[in-house]
Fold PqiA/YebS family transporter subunit.
Amino acid sequence: MYRYDLISCHDCGALHKRRPVLPREKARCVRCRSILYRGIHSDVNRMAAITLAAIFTFLIAQLCPIVELDVGGYTSSATLLGAIRVLWAEQMQVVATIVFLFTVLLPAVELGSLLYVTLALRSGVRPHGFDHLLRAVGAARRWGMTEVLMIGILITIVKMTSLAQVMVQPGLFAFGALTLMLAIVVSFDPQMLWNIGEHLPGPRRPAQAEFRYTPRTRLAACHSCGLVAQDQPAAHQHCARCGAVLHRRRPDSVGRTWAFLLAATILYIPANLLPVMYTHSLFGKEDDTIISGVVYFWTSGSPALAAIIFIASIVVPVLKLAALSLLAFTAQRRSRWRPLQRTILYRIVEFVGRWSMLDIFVITLTVALVRFQSLAVITAGPGALAFCAVVVLTMLASMQFDPRLIWDPIDSNGENHA
């Protein structure tokens, strides 16, 4: 069995022999039931066409107004980039930068890289920078949050209906279409593109000696492209296919997870106590915290939206902190307690982590829309910065934690792992 026949589970490290699967089928790990890879049509022409359409939709969504408000003849509209500029002008540069990264830059990186790669593969050539571009796609997918932004836009529109006449603009429909297109684009597995590029002419890294796997072979799996390599602990090892640094386990995984969790826990208190928005109107100045926003939606007849914001902004961060603390503690103690359940818990934390940004996106759009001169103006408060930091830190904590540490103390019963 050779390296290209092997695949390592990213959640538990169990080794499997790669087998072909039909479109829409999934190959799962026999030990932790994690999805190893999916069976999809390897039609590069289809991938390039959908990616190109998504890029045009992305440009429309960024350049066109999303919604327009009308209050007594005063009108106000906002694009996403315009909303980010307003945050920047209000000395919220950190929040503005993070919103720009998650909703503009990283989705653009993913779509641009995929288009470049798929067009080149369509021509039968492995393009320059092939390995760096596919690694960029993987990184951008972990942080891009277009679907969260779309829900934030809808919540903002509902919130504004009680303040002004709301008129939807082309940007709203473009973001809706973009969300659906990106769901299709995400189904394109970068590892499939790696495999296609392996057999095409073009620049590539120097070939490394092939090895034949035996039960005694110590292996390490690449986190970027999934290639299994022979582990060489004494050497500074890089993946032969994509150039990423190889580690059998993430260095200092538990220590870094604890550091991010501690910082997030400290900032969670001011994130909920400090105002996230200030409202200046003819009736005076009003401070709004995350809790007061939940109460507002509940008392204004929108209990569903109140529940969404409460879960995303209050419940999810607390549960993430508790769950990651449990995972880090048990991994540090090399506990054998319920490894499958702990792995499932880790997957849930990874999935829901991004949805806590929902409140930040609502604040971003609200601040940009409510600009009615002396009638009413809404500005961002320090609580928004603290809450944004909590979300980013908890996501970093989950990314630093290596779920394979859960399974390391478990008796493998003769199974091999990477």
User: Anything to note?
Assistant: Residues 43-205 form one domain. DSSP finds 14 helices and twelve strands in the chain. The first strand starts at residue 6 and ends at 8.
